[in-house]
What we know:
Layout: H1 3-26, E1 29-30, E2 35-36, H2 39-45, E3 50-55, H3 60-66, E4 72-76, H4 84-93, E5 100-104, H5 110-118, E6 123-126, H6 132-141, H7 157-160, H8 166-173, E7 175-180, H9 183-187, H10 189-193, E8 200-203, H11 205-212, H12 219-234, E9 238-243, E10 256-260
Parallel strand pairs: 3-4, 3-10, 4-5, 5-6, 6-7, 7-8, 8-9, 9-10
Antiparallel strand pairs: 1-2
Helix pairs in contact: 3-4
Amino acid sequence: xxxxxxxxxxxxxxxxxxxxxxxxxxxxxxxxxxxxxxxxxxxxxxxxxxxxxxxxxxxxxxxxxxxxxxxxxxxxxxxxxxxxxxxxxxxxxxxxxxxxxxxxxxxxxxxxxxxxxxxxxxxxxxxxxxxxxxxxxxxxxxxxxxxxxxxxxxxxxxxxxxxxxxxxxxxxxxxxxxxxxxxxxxxxxxxxxxxxxxxxxxxxxxxxxxxxxxxxxxxxxxxxxxxxxxxxxxxxxxxxxxxxxxxxxxxxxxxxxxxxxxxxxxxxxxxxxxxxxxxxxxxxx
Length: 285
C-alpha cells in the first residue's frame, strides 16, 4: 500500500474511533469496555442475577471487606441511624471497590434522593411504594433533565465518577429499585413498574407479611408475590425479592433477578454475620 493510501486509511480509522468514543460516553458506557460503569445495572442488562450485602452501621472497614464479594451494596437508611455523611465516608474509604453503591432511602423525596446520589451512590432503593405516583417521584428525583428533575451540584460523585463524564452519562447508569410491601402495592404492581425511569421492582418479603397479615407459607401470600412478578414482567422491567431465599429452588426463581442477602459471589463468608441471618428473614414456601 502506498504511503498516501496508508495515511488515508489511518485517518479514516482514527475518525471512526474518535466519533465512537463520545457516542459510548453519551450512552453511559466506559469507552474502554463498552460497559456501563454501574456494574450492577450492566449485569442485569446482561441477563445475570445480582445480589447485595447490607451495611446498616458506620464501619468503613466492614464495608471495604464485604463489598468486593457482592454485586451491589445496600446501604440501609430506612431502618438504621446511618447518616448521609457516614455513607459518603464509607464509599470514599474504598472507591470503586467492586459492589455498586446503592442506598435504601427513607422515602421518595427530593432531599433524600438528591443527597443519596450526590454522595456517590449510583442508585436508590425506595421502600413501601403503593402507587405509580410515588414511583414517578422516585424516578423524577433520580434522573437529570430531560428525564427527571435532579439538580446539578458539587457532591462526592464529582470526584468518584468524573472520568466517565458523569452529568451526561448518569441517567443511563442510574438504578432505581422500588419495593412493593403492601396489598395495595401488589394491586398496582404493573402501573408502578411501568413508570419510565424505574428499573427494578422487588417484593419486601418481611413487610408483605407484616402489612397483609399472611405468613410467607400462606397461598394468599405466595399469590401476591406471583402477582407482583407478573405485573413487573408485563411492564418489561426486572423483578426481584428482598429475601434471598427466592434466588433458587422456588417456582419464581427463574424470574428473580435481584436479591438482598444470600451467599457471596466467590464463596467468601462474613465471619461477623449471624448464621441464621439471610436477606429478609423469610423462608421460601
